[in-house]
Amino acid sequence: MTSPISSNWFQYMTMASMAQAAPAANQISSSPLGGMANDNTLFMMILNAAMQSIQQSAPTEVPLSQNPMAMKGSGSFTPIQVIIQPLQTSQAEGTPAVSPDSASIQPIDTRDVPTSPNDKSDFGFKPVQFIKLENTLEGKLSGSAQHFINAGRKYDIDPGLLTAIAIHETGNGSSRAVNEKNNVAGMMGKNGLRSYASVEESIYDMARNLRKNYLNQGKETIAEIGAKYAPVGAANDPTGLNNHWTKGVSRQFNNLT
After folding, report:
1. Model pTM?
2. What is the predicted pLDDT for the residue at 13?
3. What is the 3-state secondary structure (H, E, C) of 85-118?
């Protein structure tokens, strides 16, 4: 263990004590050779040489004001200012945040559509189990349960019917239409398959369309809706997927209710 007391100081004090105890210290011979016979003289010569060596090797004390390692007590504290820059992304400036091309997105009709007396169906708005609905949705549809509920409430449509159509049309959030155009219901526009700024907008547009052009027109069953929504033999259905529309939507709807 290193003592907090300097070893040079301890050596100096030891030799000084010995010098005070030595007799006839002031009777040193003027001749170095003649003093060799005197033990006290020899001791004092050694002691003086050792003390001079200690004094020469002692570090020069630096005033506190000139010590660069000393803290300057100015009486005030200046905090260090740290500026955190915002996270930079690789997205180029001006690039739209949504995947569909903004130039191809057509404005949607957001007007309210009241329920017509012609609607004799059982597809009016009904409360649904949110957790069950949310757990059913996958892919691009994940996290959209609340949008289906809100759109159903706005247009007085069972959220289960809206969700069943979206799951069937997109392969439960896996189709190219929903991933590239946010189109959840196969809705067509002026230039073909329609693009939306978000999945939520597509859900609301589907609900408005069903209320205005199907339920208010007296379509009472999924089969009746499908005959107009996805007619068998349509020109835009070369692979015959419309043949499975009524059965597929009905199966999804029954799973949710």
Report:
1. 0.60
2. 60
3. CCCCCCCCCCCCCCCCCHHHECCCCCCCCCCCCC
